[in-house]
Amino acid sequence: MKKNQSKISIKDIAQELGLSITTISFIxxxxxxxxxxxxxxxKVEAYIEKVGYKxxxxxxxxxxxxxxxxxxxxxxxxxxxxxSVAKEMEKLAFDSGYKIIFCSTDNKKSRAIELISMFxxxxxxxxxxxxxxxxxxxxxxxxxxxxxxxxxDRFYRDADYNYVVLNNYGSTKRAVEYLKNQGFKNxxxxxxxxxxxxxxDRFDGYKEAVREANRENLSLLISFDDVKSEVGNKQFEExxxxxxxxxxxxxxxxxxxxxxxxxxxKKNIQIPEDIGVITFDDRDLFELHAPxxxxxxxxxTSLAKEVISGTLKLLKRKxxxxxxxxxxxxxxxxxxxxx
Length: 339
Fold this sequence. Notes:
Layout (H helix, E strand, L loop, with lengths): L9 H8 L3 H8 L9 H14 L5 H8 L4 E6 L5 H16 L3 E6 L4 H14 L3 E4 L6 H9 L3 E5 L10 E4 L1 H14 L5 E6 L4 H16 L5 E5 L7 H13 L5 E4 L2 H13 L9 E5 L3 H5 L5 E4 L2 H18 L8 E4 L2 E3 L5
Parallel strand pairs: 1-2, 1-3, 3-4, 4-5, 5-11, 6-7, 6-8, 8-9, 9-10
Antiparallel strand pairs: 10-12
Helix pairs in contact: 1-2, 5-13, 8-9
């Protein structure tokens, strides 16, 4: 029967086996190779297994300077896109001996600053951050402090940071070109009023695609805080009334699409007979919607793999000067009945 592991110390193990505390410490911390015989290592490991000893994580952190924790800070961890990536990341990180702390900023700078301050006190090993608006100075501060920082979903064009993002510009152009090839002539874009790279790249991709096709720019940008409000609903309704010629809409986010679909249903606008629809980011409800909604889907598994593997590489090489990890992945157009 295993003893109560909370009462077992390295000193107890050393006394029981007649070995030095240093020897036990080397074996527990995987530093015994070429220092201690295989026979002694096996003896200690067998005893540790027998008594159920678990190293004190706080003490290990003091010895190694690592907490084996990574922060994943995003806009909203409950959003299906971020939660799906988080689920994939968690397993990959765990298999490498790391645990992930998940948190949301609600796209608020003050909240993100407060969270980072707390995580600095906890001495986390790395930060994977989807930065809120106007947050570049805070990212620069983290980097200047030699913190491991990986940007996810958003990046800064004028700064050389590590990042893993979607090819938002190219993916949006492909979505618009697909609608054009399906015979839609007046293609609208509904996005967010923001300077975040994800959304500005999508808007730029739309503008370039309609320009190349000699089509009119029919765009509506809604403030982040108005997306799920009556203000946002009214803006979308007025946009449709102002442009009755619209025969297709590309929504820049899944939340915008949900709002838009409700308004289209309310106004008895038929999909795709009256208006074709494509949105970014797949969700179960888009597949179950009648008709099913065409989406530009982000490669969840690949994004999670790249962001975790990249962060682990940064942790291994720590402060050495090497090329930045900068990954851009393409989206996948999943065609359904709405277009």
